Every structure is written in C-alpha cells, then in structure tokens.
Amino acid sequence: MISLLTTLLKRRRRPPPYILCTTLISVGGLLFGLDTGCIGPITTMPQFQDSLGGGDLSATVHGLIVSSILIPAAIASFFAGPLADRLGRRKGVSIGGVIFALGAALEAGSTDLAMLFVGRVLAGVGEGLFLSPVLVYVCEVAPPRERGVLANVSQLLTTAGICGGYFVCYGTVRLSGSSFGWRVPFVLQSAIALAYAVAVMACVPESPRWLEMKGRRAEAKTTWEVLGVSAAEAEKVDEQAAAETQASSSTLPPSLDRSDLEGTVAKTKAHALLRVFRKDVRTRTLLGVFMSGFQQLSGIDGVLFYAPLLFARAGLTSSEASFLASGVSGLLMMVVTVPAFLLADRWGRRTSTIVGGLVLAACMLIIGSLYASNSVYGDRGAARWVVIVLIYIFALVYCMTWAVGVRVHASEIQPRRTKATATGLAQTSNWTMNWIVAFTTPIFLAKSSFGVYFLFGGCILLMVAVCAAMVPETMGRSLEEIDEAFDHHHHHRDGHVHPHGVPSLVGDVGRLWTTWSSGGRKNAPRMEQEEIELSVLS
C-alpha cells in the first residue's frame, strides 16, 4: 500500500489505467457489503415486519431471510470460473451484476415473503457469479509489485459497503408508516448493481491474460498498452501466470493432441478432489478447511448481520439508536481495515490468528457471562455499556486480525500441486459455515441470551488451540520451507525450529506488540508473494 501511494505521489498525475480498471471492477465488493449491512437492519424495521411479517417475524423466518442469499451464492461460485473462462472475465462479472440487480429489484418490490425469497436467491446467484472473477481479473492485470494492494481493494470496499448499508437504513427507518423505509435500500442496491454491470462492460478492457489463453495475442498486446502496463511488467505477469498454469497441469501427459486436451483436463479435475486427501497432503487440506470454516464460527457474521438486534438486546431499544450504533461500528471497521492491511505482512499470519483469537474469545465469553449472570438490565445499568463496547472491540479486532490473515494463511499452507482444489474446498467450508451462523444466530438468541456467545467463544478458542499446535508461520517462508515444516512435523518461526509443534505464545504476543509500537516500520521478510497470490487464479 505504501509503495503504491508513493508511486502515485511521485507521478502527481491521474493513476495509470490499470489502477482505475481494477478499482472499478472491485466495486463488486461494495455490492456484497451493502447487502450485508442492509439486510439485518431491514428485517428489524417495524415497516418491514408490518408489510411482510404480519407485525412480527419468527426467529426462524428471520434467519432464513438473512441467510437465503448465501447458499445460492456458494453454488453459483462453482460455475463462475467456467463461465468467466468461456465468456471472459468482464462478461462474467457483468452477467453477475445484472442478475444481482434483478434480484434486488424483486426484493424491493416484494409483496410477500415468497417473492422476497426469490429475490434473495437471484441476488445470491449474481453475487456468486461476480465475486470470484473480480479477484481473478485483478491478479491477471495488476503488476506484481502492486497486486497485493489492488487485490485488497475489494475487501476495503466490502467494509465500506457494510458501513454504507448501516447508515442507509439509519436514514430510511425514519420513514415511519411507509414501506419505502425498507424498499429504498434494495432499490439502491439494484441501481448500483446495474450501473456496475454497464460500467464494467463499457470501461473495463478484457483481461490480456484471458485473451492470450484464447489465442488473441495481438489484441492482448494492445490491451496491455491500453491498461498502461509496460512491456516488462506485462511479461512478468505472463511468466507468473504461465508458471501457475504449468504447476496446475503438471499431471498431464507430456504429449497430447489438441483434440484430447479438453477431455484429459476434465479427467484431471475429476481426480483433483482425491489428490487433496492423499496421506502426504490431507493434513494441510483439512487444516485449510477447518480454518476457513471456524473463521465464520467466530460469530463475525452474526455480529454484522444482526448488529441492530444485538444492540437492541443490550439496551438500545429504539430502531434509530440501534441502527446508529451499527453504523458507527461499520465506520470504525472501515477505518481500522486500512492500517490492518498495511501491517498484515509485518506481524505474521499465525501471530494475528492466535493473539487476535484470544481477544475475540475474551469478548464473547465476557458478554456471555454478563448475560448468564443477569447483569444486563434492559436500558439501564453499566453492564449494557460493557456489552456494547465489547461488540465494538470484537468487530474491530476481527477486522485487524482474522479478516486479513486467516484466508491467506489457509491458502499459504497448501502445497502448489493441490493449492487450487484445497483452497476451493476451504472457501466452500467458509460459505457453508457463513450460512449456518446467519441462519441460527436469531434462533439461538430467541432461546438463550447467552448461549450463542459461549458457543462462538468456544469455537474461537478451539481455532486458537489448533493453530498454536499444528499450523506454522508462513510469512517470510518459501513454499519449500512450509513443505519441510509439515513433512517433518515441526514448525519454523523466526529462524528457530520447534520440534514439538507448540511454540510459545509469549513470542507471538511480543511480536504483535513490537509491530504496533514501531508503527509497522520494522521490515519483515516477505514470502514469495507472487506464488501465493497466483493461487487465486485457479
């Protein structure tokens, strides 16, 4: 991030086209964040419940409305890659944007719950189709020195979308007595999605890497020039993408007729799932699936989707007060995301997972204990403010630690030969647990005021224990060093070998504190970033 800002300041002119194009296509993250930030507040609006819920929504229906977008998105994401490979990256993104716009329009015009569910499903399909090609496009277009930062623009816009969604609902909830209070946020999503789809087709050139894959080399060369990427930088992108392609197809026969290629590749992909569970790699596969799933079982989406409900239970009983508190949390999350990205490569994936997890677990367990001891008395008493502050701390610490590091860590521990398939399985685990949390959180809260907090806290502690005992640090390590750590059942960290695989947590805490106190000025060895980032291309 710092290098990118320095480059732009030195140039003192408009950013090169590839930055503008990758930023524009990353607006898909904003759409994802808008839905996440809007749907929870919408379902708690009195206007919404009067229009579609007969004055009150059961916890089960509440959970279904919020979570119904996730499973269609997960299923659609399986088809997003083949669609983008056949039609092109920008067409795949635009098709997803149009479908999302149609779904949001149906949600806005819903006259009953059935129509709302159809709209949520359509929006989920669109979401699944445009999210995956966005990151692929960025990594295929951006020069290596700026790829990591540009790939994170989507995450930053997602956080901005969550914040925006909260504040939009804070404004529209004041339209009391009118269904426009809950319809306007959906109309806004639909309009932005449609404009996004049109803008991508009109302003974003196709990925040169995709054009080369289709044999359109002259057009690809022209596109590199349009994007403002130098010939040397374009060659680096091509070389790295070629290395990824060669690694992913290393099991193909050395001699293969063109007519047999498609069938052979299909067979190779059919055996990919079996390869990730072979004895030499299955531990890493299962760890990636576990880490991605338990990232969601921390309860973060329970906080994001149901923030107004959580704040209302803590004593902010009016809709406006709970929505404002949710908006403030979204704003703070957006603010801390920027330094979190700047420092992510300096304090380490493992460190942020373990230390951050301990703080997250403490927040959940303290909140659960306050509710279990009946210390929270509606809209009075100090305990309710403790709960509100801890919800803020939980969300902010998550954004600074787990949101940045867990997904990357789960991918980095995978060997190159199975990285694509193992990472895909991990993402499926993430989507599945996301749906479970979104669906069950209101049901848990209706049954028990404290049980869900103890559950999330326990899941976080289990994640911390597994990472401390079994997962090595990957920051600054080559892929060969990571392989050696797993093959010999020991962990590398800071140049030392830990044969028992349970390194001291004191070192992790000290390292995190040193990074924060130095303002991130201490340079840490960087991993072979180009090899890590190319995992998303699969």
What does it look like?
- The chain is an all-alpha fold.
- The protein folds into 2 domains: 12-247, Growth Hormone, Chain: A, CATH 1.20.1250; 295-538, Growth Hormone, Chain: A, CATH 1.20.1250.20.
- It contains 27 helices and 2 strands.
- The chain has helices at 2-11, 17-25, 28-44, 46-52, 59-67, 70-87, 89-108, 113-141, 144-151, 153-172, 180-203, 208-213, 217-227, 231-248, 258-275, 282-296, 300-305, 307-313, 319-347, 349-372, 383-400, 402-412, 419-447, 451-470, 479-487, 505-517, 529-533, and strands at 491-493, 496-498.
- Strands 1-2 form a two-stranded antiparallel ribbon.
- A hairpin with a 2-residue loop joins strand 1 and strand 2.
- Helix 16 packs antiparallel against helix 22 and helix 16 runs parallel beside helix 23.
- The longest helix is centred in the N-terminal third of the chain and has 29 residues, at 113-141.
- The radius of gyration is 23 Å and the shape is globular.
- The two termini are 25 Å apart.
- 51% of the residues are buried.
- Residues 247-266, 490-506 and 515-538 have low confidence and may be disordered.
- Residues 240-251 have a biased composition (Low complexity).
- It is found in: Membrane.
- Belongs to the major facilitator superfamily. Sugar transporter (TC 2.A.1.1) family.
